[in-house]
Amino acid sequence: MLLNMDFIDYYKILEISKTATPKDIKNAYRKLARKYHPDLNPNDNDAKNNFQKINEANEVLSDPEKRKKYDKYGKDWQHADKFEEAGQYRQQTSNAGGQRFSGSQNSGEFSDFFESMFGGFGGSARGRQVKYRGEDYQAEIHLDLIEAFETHKQTLSVNGKNIRITVPAGIENGQTIKISGHGGPGVNGGPKGDLYITFIIKNHSTIKRFGNDLYTTAEIDLYTAVLGGEIIIDTLNGKVKLKVKPETQNGTKIKLTGKGFPVYKTDGKFGDFYITFLVKIPTNLTEKQKGIFSELAKSQNTNP
Q1: pLDDT in tens, 255-267
Q2: Same fold, 131-202 and 208-284
Q3: Which residue has the higher pLDDT, 86 or 116?
Q4: 1, 156 contact by CB (below 8 A)
Q5: Is 278 helix (H, G, I), strand (E, B) or coil?
Q6: Which residue blocks in the chain are alpha helix, DSSP H?
Q7: I need a labelling partner for 233 at 20 to 30 A (CA). Which of 32, 169, 243, 252 fits?
Q8: Quick check: helix, strand or coil at residue 254?
């Protein structure tokens, strides 16, 4: 899991200067995204982390408004509106004739950031200091498909404090949930910020998820496809025995109703499970086996 609370130099991540044009940003992003894309770097955690940072940097720098705030406020760019409001309030009190206090006189009343940005407020404003909500924190939790299939507990550390949360079954890849009051501390008695957790869910090696439905393939031999039979397949919560009808064609798809992924926060409701049969053609046949197939071919051709 990643906590985005420290300053990240987005320009450095994209390997561009602060004077880069929108076209420069676009080209740099495309180049690095191709280099570190997870599909081109399987099992490479460093490439995966770099890819995430590149996407985050591009999201901010490719947006003119976000880039403007980032250039001015750095890691606090998401709270630019609050800082602007504080600056306007300071200007209003200054215009009203309030006296300015030095840092030593105002010590402890405002964070170092506010002091460095705006200085102390006028004496007439001391009894009505503006309260500011704390910074929101962002985090990621990585799960595999089996973990997301069942409701379970997860513990993550935020600024040295452990937070234990319940992850509901059926959580979506990319879904974000909010944990109220677990962000940064407020200023002047303001409320704490919130913690936003985004879930990154990796697909199973043989089972793919699309919405609440699951998809897999099952290989069957030619004899079972022709004559019928039974096979056993793996699901996310155990093995299931399937009947194969005689004369099953390659690519035949069957549906197991209600055997798919649990629907988020809906008890007892599941998607469906789709299985596609892949008929395996036998190889390394003996002369006797080839003869049998030849006879079958001849009988097929002589049928009216």
Answers
A1: 999 999 999 989 8
A2: yes
A3: 86
A4: yes
A5: strand
A6: 10-13, 22-36, 45-61, 64-73, 80-95, 112-118, 145-149, 222-227, 287-302
A7: 169
A8: strand
Would you list the domain boundaries of the chain? 76-128, 131-202, 208-284
- Amino acid 32 reads L
Q: What is the pLDDT of residue 92?
A: 57
Residue 222 near residue 282, CB atoms below 8 Å: yes
Contact status, residue 226 vs residue 247, Cβ threshold 8 Å? yes
Residue with tokens 């909010």: 178
The residue type at 156: L
Give the separation between CA 48 and CA 36, rounded to whole angstroms: 7
Q: 182 is written with which tokens?
A: 């677990």
β-pairing verdict for 195-202 and 137-144: parallel
Q: 131-202 has which CATH code?
A: 2.60.260.20
The pTM of the full predicted model, rounded to 2 decimals, is: 0.55
CATH number at 208-284? 2.60.260.20
User: Can you read off the two tokens belonging to residue 8?
Assistant: 């990240």
Q: How many residues make up the chain in this entry?
A: 304
